[in-house]
Amino acid sequence: xxxxxxxxxxxxxxxxxxxxxxxxxxxxxxxxxxxxxxxxxxxxxxxxxxxxxxxxxxxxxxxxxxxxxxxxxxxxxxxxxxxxxxxxxxxxxxxxxxxxxxxxxxxxxxxxxxxxxxxxxxxxxxxxxxxxxxxxxxxxxxxxxxxxxxxxxxxxxxxxxxxxxxxxxxxxxxxxxxxxxxxxxxxxxxxxxxxxxxxxxxxxxxxxxxxxxxxxxxxxxxxxxxxxxxxxxxxxxxxxxxxxxxxxxxxxxxxxxxxxxxxxxxxxxxxxxxxxxxxxxxxxxxxxxxxxxxxxxxxxxxxxxxxxxxxxxxxxxxxxxxxxxxxxx
Length: 329
Ligand code: NDP
What we know:
Elements: E1 4-12, E2 18-26, E3 35-43, H1 46-53, E4 69-77, E5 87-91, E6 106-109, E7 114-116, H2 123-145, E8 155-157, H3 163-174, E9 179-183, H4 189-195, E10 199-202, E11 218-223, H5 227-235, E12 237-245, H6 259-264, E13 267-270, H7 278-291, H8 294-299, E14 301-305, H9 309-317, E15 324-328
Parallel strand pairs: 8-9, 8-11, 9-10, 11-12, 12-13, 14-15
Antiparallel strand pairs: 1-2, 3-4, 3-6, 3-15, 4-5, 5-7
The chain binds NADPH dihydro-nicotinamide-adenine-dinucleotide phosphate.
NADPH dihydro-nicotinamide-adenine-dinucleotide phosphate binds at residues 45-47, 131-132, 135, 159-165, 183-185, 203, 207, 224-225, 229, 246-250, 271-274, 316, 319, 321.
């Protein structure tokens, strides 16, 4: 008998109205690829929330199994780099956007998209990190490349109680940075301090229209919010500092001026995780293995089952999810 597995399928009708259903698929339904994986864990990122809720055009092939992150075990492979039984992670590469993604019992993908599960890390741990956490690491690496090390002064993290923000606070504090965490949820202050924030500030301090230059408050920042928040972070960055920008939870615009760049030599560092080359991914995951405290990782994640994915997807776009969500398949 053909083996079936559960999957979430997002479809669109002739009027382009989107619908989401749980269905049964078989291997024959999966898209092309040279490696088939039993999905053991996945997660719900902001982008997955946008895909399932239809609030932004993340899905560009219909119908589609969403889910941009997975960890699992190779079932079969015709790629020389991967063999049955290998433990692997996949983040991005258009999976969950144009290629069937993680919200299914099985996935068939290109072997070139996979990285090995780091030594000592479970599928669950890897998904507690997920694209959000790996992106936070890319942001930290970008700041380091720019010379923003702990001795340069405080670093601000916006959207701090979210997925990227929580992992960024955790990694930065483990590395010895003085972390200023900005959140719209004051009740999450104890959580952020537990993750290692030295100060917690209200998101309201950063979400009004920015002055070209404001009082210098930090040497750098990791911003997952965009819009006025990123403009304020830039205008408050001290001379020669740098800000890694990776997100748009507050808006895609950037109502800023060139003043921070031309009068304070501030740099804006763009971060993309989706198409990041394999060598960069391997380095980011290696650093996650060494610089992210396992106890902190546990404290910033909650676990749900397959049946909780759709609800969590709506919650994350409503800003109701704290830290990271792991889906145990
Ligand atoms: P989360 O929803 O987990 O976190 C986003 C956080 O931003 C929220 O928790 C909230 O933090 C804050 N926030 C939400 N809405 C607003 C608002 N209107 N104004 C100000 N702050 C707001 O999402 P993720 O951490 O998974 O992703 C964060 C962003 O990064 C998203 O835009 C995502 O698309 C992007 N991203 C980009 C990647 C890339 O490759 N460039 C990869 C991964 C993510 P708080 O409650 O603490 O204020």
